[in-house]
Amino acid sequence: MAAAVGIGDDTKPTMRESLVRAAFQLFLERGFEQTTIDDIVSLAGVGRRSFFRYFPSKEDVVFPDHEGCLAEMTAFLRAAPPDGDPVTQACDASRLVLRMYAADPVFSVQRYRLTRQVPGLRAHELSVVWRYERALAEHLRERGAERADGALRADVVAAAVVAAHNHALRTWLRAGGEGDVQAAMDEALGYVTRAFSPTPPASPGSPGSPARSTAAAAAVDGEDEQVVVLLARKGTPLWRVVRDVEGALGE
Amino acid sequence: MAAAVGIGDDTKPTMRESLVRAAFQLFLERGFEQTTIDDIVSLAGVGRRSFFRYFPSKEDVVFPDHEGCLAEMTAFLRAAPPDGDPVTQACDASRLVLRMYAADPVFSVQRYRLTRQVPGLRAHELSVVWRYERALAEHLRERGAERADGALRADVVAAAVVAAHNHALRTWLRAGGEGDVQAAMDEALGYVTRAFSPTPPASPGSPGSPARSTAAAAAVDGEDEQVVVLLARKGTPLWRVVRDVEGALGE
DNA sequence: CACCCAAATGGCACTCAGTACCCTCGATTA
DNA sequence: TAATCGAGGGTACTGAGTGCCATTTGGGTG
After folding, report:
1. Among A56, A63, A163, A238, whose CB has the most other CB atoms within 10 angstroms?
2. Around Cβ B28, how many Cβ atoms within 10 Å?
3. Rounded to two decimals, what is the model's pTM?
4. What is the nearest CA distance from A88 to chain B, expressed in angstroms?
5. What is the CATH number of domain B65-196?
6. Residues of A with Cβ-Cβ distance to B167 under 8 angstroms
7. CA angle B6, B27, A128 (to 5 degrees)
């Protein structure tokens, strides 16, 4: 998943990149509403019709990578081991989204400031976030179907995970992208998992069942501690690595 | 707060009521997107300009009473006793919103079916719900400022309350407005209050505390392809593995 | 090289939401 | 009666988004 705006890329930028770059330049220097589609496409030097081939609406150009990120997240959830803790998996899925933001802090902060002051963008962001939340809730519902209140719990936990995620993320964005997002996210998600873990989960390093060895990852019993060895080609999709290593780590 | 559409009201309907009535008639018989503002105002027998005097957008006519309901809720929260339990107050505030829906089940069900199948309306509803959630979060933050994690907790609890509210409400709406909403709402909100009760289920060995220094990853150039070797203790939190391996994988 | 095909792009015209501005009408009041 | 004021109506405009068709581009293939 290349950076949102292909800075430092000496190859000819794609149409998407040109449009995003032109749009953000204008949005930042004169505002979202004060910028028309015609302004964007004329700065990018492309036809007006092309804009709507790449972005269904003016708002979508502000979130150019969310469609792919959502797909990545659903793939991650689908590939999650059925015997793992669904809440933990949901948290890990939300960390996947955080990665996208953290990959380009400057861009993320610019976008945050934009969406904060443009009501139309805030509304659009809500519908984006809503899709993540639905994906999490669906996963939790499927994996927690044995509970009597499974559907309710799924909705509530998904909302809580998203809220914690947004809290940590926005605190970081408000601070201009300075500081340790990961740590803040860990704390926020930890708060959620603590609230929704009726049975205190086994502490890390539990001498549990032997790990199932996958094609890529395997557990090995060392002298005094078990370790996991993972081999993966460079460029392997992260979710695939995660899936393979997750079982071996034994939760 | 009078019913949304003044049925059985023998006085001359106000402009608002005429517009809402005409709009819903057309939305239900030919769909939201297939209905233009001109259609609505000509059916209502008023000028086109008048529509936008009463509703800032076409979507707003579908939620004619939310502005007042939100004001009612914020007033309720502001008037809540300072020594009460903020979470309980937030739940009660959400019950206030439920009352608005339950006051006119037919209208609520019609609107639900409409918003479910029109993306634009769903997006608009999200921004409406978002304002309720912000109001709850603000209240929780103000009333729970003594906690260290007050702001995080406020966001998470507000999201959980709203999610529980929506779960119960939508289940009822999906069933056509039949059954006891109040009971379902009590159960849903009870689930949230239990999860965030003043005495949390203190879980020893909390999963939030990350194990230190457990994973390491490095990229190695092989004969014909690069591979990544990962070593990790069993039980290492998955997110930590992800963090360590993602750099090595080189995107 | 000529040709062709398919995808990508550009151009044009159109619908419709939303806004700015001004007009009319009727009721109240100085 | 004149001045005022508020509710509503009318007109024209901007700009987002769409459908349709022409044009270009970049391979293959004879």
Report:
1. A163
2. 14
3. 0.80
4. 9
5. 1.10.357.10
6. 151-152, 155-156
7. 110
